[in-house]
Design goal:
This is RNase H type-1 domain-containing protein. GO terms for molecular function: nucleic acid binding; RNA-DNA hybrid ribonuclease activity. InterPro entries: RNaseH_domain (IPR002156). It comes from Lithocarpus litseifolius. The protein has 148 residues and is mainly alpha-helical. The chain contains six helices and no strands. The longest helix is centred in the middle third of the chain and has 27 residues. It starts with a helix and ends in a 5-residue tail after the last helix. The model has no long low-confidence stretch (mean pLDDT 83).
Length: 148
């Protein structure tokens, strides 16, 4: 393989992207019954490498600046809760604290993400029943203050 000894790093880079593109095309034939011509594979490899280089170029520029070191963020936002709480209670308290904090910061929009689907659905439905109903209702009221 002369490319390993005589080629440039760009040649080697393009070789491996092309080899991967051929392998990817082979898998498309085997698993999806999609066949590409050699020209399509070649074009895909060139475009893929170009897109990759564009995607990582800001990172390489940031890394090359001396003195720009990563700095740890300030202490995490946390709150001590005395007592024993269920996971549902902790999830709803965390959302409530986050929304109130966003309101305090005068943010115009918020996005709530949680892996507790039932809690999110209860907030969306403005559910007022159950032991957490007053939290859901309060969160829904505060959310109305933000733009959609």
């Amino acid at each position: 393989m002369e490319i390993m000894t005589q080629g440039t790093s760009q040649d080697l880079e393009f070789f491996f992207v092309t080899a991967w593109s051929i392998w990817y095309s082979r898998n498309q034939v085997v698993h999806e019954s999609v066949c590409q011509s050699p020209n399509q594979i070649w074009s895909f490899a060139r475009t893929y490498l170009k897109d990759y280089k564009e995607a990582v170029s800001p990172l390489s520029l940031l890394r090359s600046h001396e003195g720009n070191r990563w700095v740890a963020p300030p202490a995490a936002c946390s709150r001590y809760l005395s007592g024993q709480f269920t996971t549902s209670e902790v999830e709803v308290l965390a959302v409530e604290c986050g929304i109130l904090f966003a309101q305090e910061l005068e943010l115009s929009q918020v996005i709530i993400e949680s892996d507790a689907l039932s809690m999110v659905q209860s907030i969306i439905d403005n559910e007022t029943d159950g032991s957490l109903g007053h939290f859901y209702s309060g969160i829904s009221q505060v959310l109305e203050l933000f733009s959609k």
